[in-house]
Amino acid sequence: MIQTRQSPARSQVAIIGAGPAGLTLAHILHHHGIDSVVIERRDRAYVERRLRAGVLEQGTVDLFRALGVSARLDREGLVHHGINLQFSGERHRIALSDLTGGRAITIYGQHEVVKDLIAARLANDGPIWFDADDVSLHDLTSDKPRVHFRRDGRAHELHCDFVAGCDGSHGVSRSAVPTAERRTFERTYPFSWLGILAAVPPSLGEVIYAHHERGFALHSMRGPQVTRLYVQCGPDDGLDSWPDERVWLELKTRLSTTDGWTVQEGAVIEKSITALRSFVMEPMQYGQLFLAGDAAHVVPPTGAKGMNLAVADARVLGDALAQWYRAGDRSLLAEYSSTCLRRVWRAEHFSWFMTSMLHRFPDGDAFQQKLQLSQLRYVCTSTAAATSLAENYVGLEHV
Ligand code: FAD
Ligand code: PHB
To answer: What pLDDT digit, counting tens, does each position of 167-187 carry?
Structure first.
């Protein structure tokens, strides 16, 4: 067995991936006195810079508070009590908190969450091994699984009781489950999102989801001086076809309202394109391997659910492992997949619903557009429909 001085050859739980799922799980396990090693393919700077989600559900924030990792989130996170839906040039506010007994969302970048979780993990002397190449999982159906990887040019082997596959949608954990043992459910959408980060104060204090005949647009933010914006673009578009002037023109066209309001321009700090996809793998466990987050399921970002689902899986898995180590009781572990999948499928439906209601479909005819506008008007005028959207958006406590 080969190891570096700081690399113990054994840990109770091997966690593959230092994203929101893996890092949250590491903290929950630490809280229960269970040791784990996080094995990450990228370097620390890379994972701390990767811009992605921005909306934290109430339950996600509550969990970070309970784990004692919310100091900066509590200081810098923007608590929002509503979101806005825009169509036909008019804005309609969905009063999230009024409709859900006071629950709210917090705007705080995923990379800030990751930074906070990494800093707290290292402060607890919890190991994270960055720059790990060629990770592979072995003996998953035995009670002595092993993880192999390369680091600093050397081969390493980690023995463990359990493996948590938290390595996102392009990781190795999902494919460690034999095809005969899994079923996948998938939908790709005929469009992508072009996202920018702009050095300009948000043009409105809340998130705006806009339906427009030219396509969907979204106004969000990362702080008092930084705006996050997205426009629907073609599925094969590259960044070359989206110079800044074109991005601003589309944002202004799609987000302006008939009363003269429009978005303020600023320097573009970052620009990237994300494909939209729905994907679920069932079950989320195989032997001693448990998948969490994007490794097991992907949602289009329109419902702002992906990171929240990753954190929710980590919580279910952390509690199940704690019950096993505390009482030798495997019942929560046995139910892990079915417990998670209830929430996952609710989020899959909500994300598909938001995506279908708000985007322009290339093959969409006038009939489909009329249906979208009717649904938007219904959501904005019926308390029952608005409540349904609001409770899904802030996150359901019991699914
Ligand atoms: P990841 O964040 O993908 O983390 C996986 C980690 O595993 C990574 O660090 C990766 O480097 C590592 N890894 C991969 N392969 C290996 C390997 N072979 N070995 C070791 N390590 C490996 N979600 C929300 O909740 N709200 C939002 O507002 C929202 N907006 C979004 C906007 C955009 C534009 C995008 C792209 C996504 C958005 N999401 C949102 C989704 C959210 O970002 C993901 O669902 C979330 O990152 C999932 O976390 P995770 O920990 O499961 O996976
Ligand atoms: C974001 O702020 O990045 C964001 C907000 C809402 C979404 C997706 C992303 O639905």
So the answer is: 999 999 999 999 999 999 999
